[in-house]
């Protein structure tokens, strides 16, 4: 057996995985009846359909020719994810201004080229704008600086 | 229709055109545009924050400003959708599909102008509809119960498949994945927490903005960053800024159709307006002779949903003003704003406070005019933004996304969730699974389940109600017809292939 | 000896100075329900407090899990008077009974400072229903067991629990139809798909006044000034029926007593101010009779007991 369309093969597997996941987890809830449908009713039915559709996509990938599996590039994935997580979880402890510095610098590492001076200027511009627009203008409840400094 | 409409509108414009109301209308639409452009910061949060400011204003002035924020945000939302593939709210998801493609082809100006013109036209027509037919249309809203909504959602889901331009099976699977993701959270009927795994942040479900910004915005940034050269993201060759004769010829019919579809759906408070832009896009893709260009930068794919969206936003004031029933979170907040001003929204507003009712309607038209006048000159500025090198642009986009998502509930969890959906969206891109059907499923899933279960409860378990109620039956028949139309090309293609081989 | 007195005086003086120093920075009022009446009234109160305290009072919405996220956040915040909660009937009386586990204790983890809003519910029926008063409704429900439907804004809401209490007290059987919010339920009531519901007085008042729905009784112990001619359920034969929807300002348990007193006084003063009174009245709230932190705590205690009972008889608690 040969995989003719790797993209569809993996897509099929993904759908089967999601379908089974919802199907299995829904097993923890009550099914109910057609009149009084329980919380498990909808997810069980949908999870089942999803798994079947995944199987169809998987089967098609063995019969219909498709494009090759593309490369995943991990550098942007890593830096973008890291930048967002750091921003989210550092905002309250270190304040809005420093969290933005972290977000801009870490995400910029994920780009094509990293020019420190340019990124520093960008960070300053974005911080000034964001503080004025979001904290001063829209009064979002963000602390500007770490607790010990204010 | 009686002639009193003209005296009523005259009364309304008399109110809307006073200098103070004009000024607050302008403030409202400006602010609305700003928060619309900034992803995640929605009109609900903004209106809530501004509420204390409005205490010192007269009721009508306050409402004119708050309404301006609402429809200004609708305008602004399409700007970020077109420029950087960021849907800030449900209605701009479909604008991303063709609008962003147009931007990448150097036609961002045309796309923005089309969106503005479509919205303005739709705003004018639907304002007139609200003015002329509000009370009878409110009766239509009453005709829609759980079974009607369920069947409408079914039709919407079948239509969702049309959104995709690739494999039908994969599109259906994405719709279902969206439905399932939409079920995460507290079950309306039993109060059971589903798929939350002890995470209390998931108890109210996953936010639409979080998912949409993840699978569209974040995934797009990662995909762009993996290109060899950053100049590939946006073409430098910017063509004309405003629509050409050819563009006008192609857009006017979609705008007209979108306006009417959107106006009709906007009347339904139980999720009609959500379907407006999706529905209009689907309809265009099926009736347009440029159907094959959809998803690759077809101007119809921007014109129709933008018109529908704005029309729906205006007509959703009908259930609010005549029945006191809000169609969405913004409208619910508007009710609060009205109440605190001593006005109880409901059937009496029109008769007891005609200057308020008609003043607000007139101000909607004025506000729409302001928006188009403000937005058209802005286009040049926006296009300039795209000439900024991508290495500068993408951290800036990330900053606005992160702030916006964080502000949704002042909780870092939403930022984390957006990032996870970004990764999922990137996988979707790689596997050629299109995210638009997923998002429509995500919106419709909970509504569909809720209404199905409610209809079954009310009918004591008799599924025949879906067919005996004429409106519901009509939608189901339409769904079946659409399904057949969808499947036909595949069948025909298969037969043609068979002939070729033979 | 003198020195010690001086020192003591300085120390106590310093202590007083510390208390007077509050608030030295912006105070945050955490609101669990964005966009609704709780949010709106939070902002009304915040504005007044800001004027009185001379420091910004910022409303910060932290939605999620029926208010649990916000309540838990405040319960675990520093008890310094800078983080307050707009706690509500759901976070402090219903959730403890409804939810399998709560990360906070509604009594022990909080100082209950001031009740801000208290809104009655009203029993409304569809205009076509041949019931002009509560007795006729009970007779109708008995004649058609299981045929009447009542809607509510969610499972475990006051609208739902009021309906269940009504069923239990009258020995009738009606079907509960849950919605995501009360507005869509009202729509179905107007259209005749539902026969009755227990709705928030403020939101149903315009429809009652316009004659689009018929009100039969209010759920409070005493008649409300909004509808003085409307009987209470208690008068209509359901002895002891008394339910309101309420919310008020709370703080973490160990908040300094001076701060609690100051806040309580300022809030009560704000509630008595004519403009605030008018605004909260337009949201269906009469100025609460509960005016001290202690009375508020006692009130929550009794509400908690009431809803523990109601949730049990309703079977609303998911298993």
Overall description:
The complex is a heterotrimer of chains A (150), B (502) and C (319). Chain A has 150 residues and is mainly α. Chain A has helices spanning 6-26, 41-63, 74-108, 116-137. Chain B is built from 21 helices and 2 strands. Chain B has helices at 4-16, 19-37, 43-54, 59-84, 93-104, 108-143, 146-163, 168-182, 208-225, 245-266, 272-287, 300-315, 317-323, 329-340, 349-352, 354-386, 390-409, 412-430, 435-458, 465-468, 470-501; strands at 185-186, 193-194. A two-stranded antiparallel ribbon of chain B has the order 1-2. In chain B, helix 4 (59-84) runs antiparallel to helix 14. Chain C contains 11 helices and 9 strands. Chain C has helices at 2-21, 37-53, 68-75, 89-98, 134-143, 158-170, 182-190, 201-209, 257-272, 274-282, 293-314; strands at 27-31, 57-61, 83-88, 110-126, 149-152, 175-178, 196-200, 213-218, 244-252. The chains are: A mainly alpha (150), B mainly alpha (502), C alpha/beta (319). Chains in contact: A-B, A-C, B-C. Chains B and C meet through helix 3, helix 6, helix 14 and helix 19 of B and helix 2, strand 2, helix 3, strand 6 and helix 7 of C.
Give the N-to-C terminal Cα separation of chain C. Answer: 68 Å
Q: What structural class do the secondary elements of chain C suggest?
A: alpha/beta
Q: N- to C-terminal separation of chain A?
A: 66 Å
Structural classification of chain A: mainly alpha
The succession of helices and strands of chain A, N to C, reads: HHHH
Helical content of chain A (DSSP H or I, runs of 4+): 55-70%
Write down the Rg of chain A. Answer: 24 Å
Mean pLDDT of chain C: 86
Main sheet of chain A, how many strands, which sense, barrel? none
| Rg calc of chain C | 22 Å
Number of strands of chain C: 9
List the uncertain runs of chain C: 6-19
H/E series of chain C: HEHEHEHEHEHEHEHEEHHH
Biggest interface and which pair forms it?
A-B, 72 and 66 residues
- Give the quaternary arrangement of the chains: heterotrimer
Name the poorly predicted regions of chain A: none
């Amino acid at each position: 057996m040969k995989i003719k369309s790797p993209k569809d093969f993996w897509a099929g597997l993904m759908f089967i995985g999601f379908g089974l996941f919802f199907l299995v987890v829904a097993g923890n809830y009550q099914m109910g009846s057609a009149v009084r449908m329980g919380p498990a009713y909808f997810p069980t039915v949908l999870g089942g359909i999803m798994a079947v559709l995944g199987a169809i996509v998987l089967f098609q990938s063995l019969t219909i020719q498709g494009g090759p599996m593309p490369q995943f590039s991990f550098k942007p994935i890593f830096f973008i994810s890291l930048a967002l997580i750091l921003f989210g979880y550092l905002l309250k402890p270190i304040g809005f201004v420093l969290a933005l510095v972290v977000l801009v610098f870490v995400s910029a590492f994920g780009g094509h080229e990293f020019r420190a001076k340019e990124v520093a200027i960008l960070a300053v511009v974005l911080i000034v704008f964001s503080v004025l627009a979001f904290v001063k203008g829209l009064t979002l409840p963000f602390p500007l600086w770490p607790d010990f400094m204010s | 229709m009686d002639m009193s409409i003209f005296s009523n509108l005259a009364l309304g414009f008399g109110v809307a055109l006073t200098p103070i109301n004009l000024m607050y209308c302008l403030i409202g639409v400006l602010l609305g545009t700003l928060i619309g452009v900034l992803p995640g910061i929605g009109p609900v949060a903004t209106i809530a924050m501004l509420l204390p400011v409005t205490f010192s204003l007269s009721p009508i002035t306050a409402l004119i400003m708050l309404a301006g924020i609402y429809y200004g945000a609708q305008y602004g939302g399409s700007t970020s959708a077109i420029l950087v593939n960021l849907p800030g709210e449900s209605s701009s998801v479909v604008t991303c599909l063709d609008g962003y493609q147009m931007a990448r082809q150097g036609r961002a100006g045309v796309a923005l102008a089309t969106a503005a013109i479509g919205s303005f036209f739709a705003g004018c027509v639907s304002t007139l509809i609200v003015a002329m037919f509000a009370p009878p249309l409110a009766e239509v809203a009453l005709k829609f119960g759980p079974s009607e909504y369920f069947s409408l959602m079914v039709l919407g889901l079948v239509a969702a498949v049309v959104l995709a331009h690739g494999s039908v099976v994969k599109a259906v699977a994405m719709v279902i994945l969206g439905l399932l993701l939409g079920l995460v959270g507290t079950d309306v009927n039993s109060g059971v927490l589903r798929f939350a795994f002890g995470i209390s942040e998931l108890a109210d479900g996953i936010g639409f903005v979080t998912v949409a910004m993840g699978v569209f915005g974040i995934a797009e940034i990662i995909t762009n960053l993996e290109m060899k050269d950053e100049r590939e993201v946006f073409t430098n060759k910017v063509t004309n800024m405003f629509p050409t004769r050819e563009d006008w010829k192609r857009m006017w019919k979609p705008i007209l159709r979108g306006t009417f579809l959107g106006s009709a759906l906007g009347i339904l408070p139980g999720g009609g307006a959500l379907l407006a832009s999706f529905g209009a896009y689907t309809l265009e893709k099926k009736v347009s002779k440029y159907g094959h260009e959809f998803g690759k930068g077809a101007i119809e794919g921007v014109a129709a949903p933008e018109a529908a969206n704005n029309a729906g936003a205006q007509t959703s004031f009908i259930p609010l003003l005549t029945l006191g029933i809000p169609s969405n979170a913004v409208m619910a907040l508007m009710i609060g704003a009205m109440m605190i001003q001593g006005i109880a929204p409901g059937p009496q507003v029109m008769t007891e406070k005609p200057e308020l009712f008609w003043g607000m309607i007139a101000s909607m038209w004025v506000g729409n005019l302001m928006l188009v006048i403000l937005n058209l000159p802005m286009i040049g500025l926006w296009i300039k933004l795209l000439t900024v090198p991508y290495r500068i642009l993408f951290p800036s986009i990330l900053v606005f996304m992160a702030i916006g998502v964080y502000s949704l509930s002042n909780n870092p969890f939403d930022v984390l969730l957006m990032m996870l959906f970004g990764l999922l969206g990137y996988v979707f891109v790689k596997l050629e699974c299109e995210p638009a059907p997923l998002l429509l499923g995500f919106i419709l899933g909970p509504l569909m389940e809720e209404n199905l279960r409610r209809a079954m409860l009310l009918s004591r378990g008799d599924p025949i109600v879906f067919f005996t109620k004429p409106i519901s039956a009509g939608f189901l028949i339409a769904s079946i017809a659409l399904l057949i139309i969808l499947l036909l090309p595949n069948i025909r293609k298969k037969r043609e292939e068979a002939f070729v081989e033979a | 000896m003198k020195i010690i007195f001086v020192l003591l005086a300085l120390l106590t003086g310093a202590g007083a100075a510390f208390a007077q120093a509050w608030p030295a920075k912006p105070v945050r009022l955490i609101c669990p329900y964005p966009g609704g009446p709780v949010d709106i009234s939070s902002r009304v109160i915040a504005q007044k407090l800001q004027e009185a305290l001379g420091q910004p009072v910022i409303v910060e919405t932290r939605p999620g899990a029926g208010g649990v996220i916000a309540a838990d956040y405040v319960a675990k915040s520093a008890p310094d008077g800078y983080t307050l909660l707009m706690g509500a009937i759901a976070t402090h009386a219903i959730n403890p009974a409804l939810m399998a586990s709560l990360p906070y204790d509604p009594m022990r983890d909080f100082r209950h400072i001031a009740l801000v809003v208290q809104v009655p519910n009203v029993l409304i029926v569809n205009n076509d229903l041949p019931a002009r008063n509560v007795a006729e409704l009970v007779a109708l429900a008995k004649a058609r067991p299981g045929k009447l439907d009542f809607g509510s804004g969610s499972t475990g809401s006051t609208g739902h629990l009021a309906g269940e209490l009504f069923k239990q007290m009258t020995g009738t059987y009606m079907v509960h139809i849950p919605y995501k919010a009360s507005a869509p339920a009202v729509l179905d009531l107007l259209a005749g798909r539902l026969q009755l519901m227990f709705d928030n007085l403020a939101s149903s008042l315009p429809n009652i006044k316009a004659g689009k729905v018929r009100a039969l009784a209010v759920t409070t112990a005493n008649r409300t000034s909004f509808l003085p001619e409307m009987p209470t359920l208690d008068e209509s034969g359901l002895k002891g029926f008394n339910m309101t929807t309420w919310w008020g300002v709370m703080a973490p348990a160990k908040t300094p007593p001076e701060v609690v007193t100051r806040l309580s006084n300022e809030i009560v003063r704000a509630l008595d101010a004519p403009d605030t009174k008018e605004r909260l009245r337009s949201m269906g709230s009469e100025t609460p009779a509960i005016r001290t932190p202690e009375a508020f705590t006692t009130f929550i205690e009794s509400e908690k007991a009431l809803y523990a009972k109601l949730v049990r008889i309703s079977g609303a608690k998911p298993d």
